[in-house]
C-alpha cells in the first residue's frame, strides 16, 4: 500500500516535456473495492461512488515508490497518469481540476492513499507536472468520477461494473503536455471532501454539479490532454467535520467539539444540509493545523475542503 504523497522542492512552473519511458514489470492489476480499513484513528470505507465529486488538497508521490505494486496489483510508474484515493473502487478514471490555475486532467486511480490528514488524492509525478503543481507539492483541487477503467491486460470489468460506455482504457505511455482552452462554466465552490462515513453518520454533504453532458471533458481517457477551465477567482480552505439534514444534529456536534465552529446552510438535490466547519483559511499550513486540532478532539473524519 502506498501512503504519503511526496513533496518536491523548487518552483512551480509550466508542465515539463515527457520523460523518457522506463521499462517496468508487466502489471497484473485486478478489479477491487476492498474492505473497510483503519489508518491511525480513522476508518475508511471503500465503496462504489459513481457520483463522486469533492474538493480538497491534492499532493503527489514519485520515484520513491517507482516499481512497487499498487493496491490493485499494478506496478507504480511515475510517468503514468495514475493516482491514489482512499475509498474509490480500483481502477477508475477521475478528473482532477486544479482550482488555482484551471488545468484539468483525467487520471487512473489504481492505489490507496493519501493517508496524510487533509489530502484527498495523491497523483503521480507526471500528472502533477501536467497540472502545474509539481514544484509547490500540493494544490487545491476538485476530483470527479468519470468512469470505470479497463484492467491492465485489457480484461473487461466484472459484472455490475458499469455499462460498456462507462468502461475506459488506461494510457500506457507518458503523454505530450498539450494545453487547450475551453469555454466551460465556472466550477462551483461548494463541495464536500470527506471520506465515506460509517453507516451511522447522518446525511452526506453536497457535491458540486459536474460539467454538462456536452462538455468535451466527459467520458475522457487518461491520455494526457490538459484543458483549462474557468475556476473561482478566489477560494478558501475550511475544516469540515460533518454535514447533516437536521440542524439540531449539526449543533450538537459543534457543541461537543468546542468553540469556533460555524454551521452553514446549503441546498443540495432539493434538500437543506447543515455543514459544521472551521475557517476560512487562506494558507494550507493554517488549515492543516486546524485539522490536527479538530482531530485531537475526536473528529477523525474531519477533512479540508475548498470553497469560495
In short, what is this structure?
The protein contains three helices and 14 strands. It is mainly β.
Structure characterization notes:
This protein has helices at 125-131, 247-257, 284-296; strands spanning 37-39, 42-44, 53-61, 82-84, 92-98, 103-111, 121-124, 138-148, 179-181, 226-228, 236-244, 262-268, 271-281, 303-307. With 308 residues, the protein is mainly β. The protein has a domain at 37-231: Barwin-like endoglucanases (Beta Barrel), CATH 2.40.40. The strands form three sheets. The protein has a six-stranded mixed barrel with strand order 3-7-4-6-5-8. Residues 1-25, 159-177 and 182-219 have low confidence and may be disordered.
Write the layout of secondary structure elements.
Elements: E1 37-39, E2 42-44, E3 53-61, E4 82-84, E5 92-98, E6 103-111, E7 121-124, H1 125-131, E8 138-148, E9 179-181, E10 226-228, E11 236-244, H2 247-257, E12 262-268, E13 271-281, H3 284-296, E14 303-307
Parallel strand pairs: 3-7, 4-6, 9-10
Antiparallel strand pairs: 1-2, 3-8, 4-7, 5-6, 5-8, 6-10, 11-13, 11-14, 12-13
What's the N-to-C terminus distance?
A: 34 Å
By CATH, the superfamily of the domain at 37-231 comes out as RlpA-like domain
**How many strands?**
14
Structural class call reads mainly beta
Q: How helical, in percent, are the residues?
A: 10-25%
Report the portion of residues in β strands.
25-35%
Mean pLDDT: 77
Radius of gyration: 19 Å
List keywords for this structure.
single chain; 308 residues; mainly beta; Barwin-like endoglucanases; 6-stranded mixed β-barrel; 4-stranded antiparallel β-sheet; 3 helices; 14 strands; 10% helix; 28% strand; globular; disordered N terminus
